[in-house]
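FAQ: What does a ligand-bound record look like?

Like this one, built around iron/sulfur cluster:
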Amino acid sequence: MTVAPDVLAVRRLVRWFDREGPDLPWRRTRDRWAVLVSEVMLQATPVARVIPYYESWLTRWPRAADLAASSVGDAVAAWQGLGYPRRARNLHAAATVIAQSGWPDASRYQDLPGVGAYTADALRCFADEQPVLPEDVNVRRVVARRFPAGWPGAPRGRGWHAGQAMMDLGREFCRARAPRCDDGCPLRPGCPAADAGVVHEVTPVTRRQARYEGSMRQRRGFLLKALAEDGRVRVSSDPEAADSLVAEGLADRRGSLLVPAGSA
Ligand code: SF4
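The answer part, i.e. the structure of the complex:
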């Protein structure tokens, strides 16, 4: 059976990662909370800077429930120096929802405050080991340059490794300004952009975001947040979203009120 060249390229990439991928603390776990913390911290902050924050954060708050039991102010104070403190607030809000209602189904990670399409895919790939490729701006750039026909998928059971490898490749080799095509890039053989000499001209496809304003995802998120903060919310405020939370076991109904799942 003939194997497509792009599939072979991904196999080569995964072998490269097996040999050379750095041992980062969040790569030693599949715990969803730890993966979420790392992903939120890595948004817009370099790896080396994140490591000490990640380690001390998880030492202090090893579970979502631990952070939920602390104040938002503590979270923001611990975040100081990482930048964009809104991320600490979002993480605290997500921890509160998780502590109250448990983790949503993997298809509903975006219901958590501050979790967008990329972070939801990262949870599915790096915590749940589902065969999805989380595409941040770096990974989208690699796909656009190296796999213009689209991501060919990871070898069976290696989705986590392929995702991590693409992160590393986008950061270390396939950079926006100074790509290192001929300086050891493991995807160089057969790279269409490099072969055609158009690397700088290929720009990543902008991810099409599903409309969020007014979406069921947003409405469910509002209710989950209100439940986490107030412990109950009127079903009549959004009966359809309330029904969907009850149907998935994320909340219970008590007469005209919606309450956190499993609460007395
Ligand atoms: S050869 Fe160049 S353009 Fe192709 S994947 Fe490697 S760094 Fe990116």
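Follow-up question: can I read anything off the structure? Yes, for example: The radius of gyration is 21 Å.
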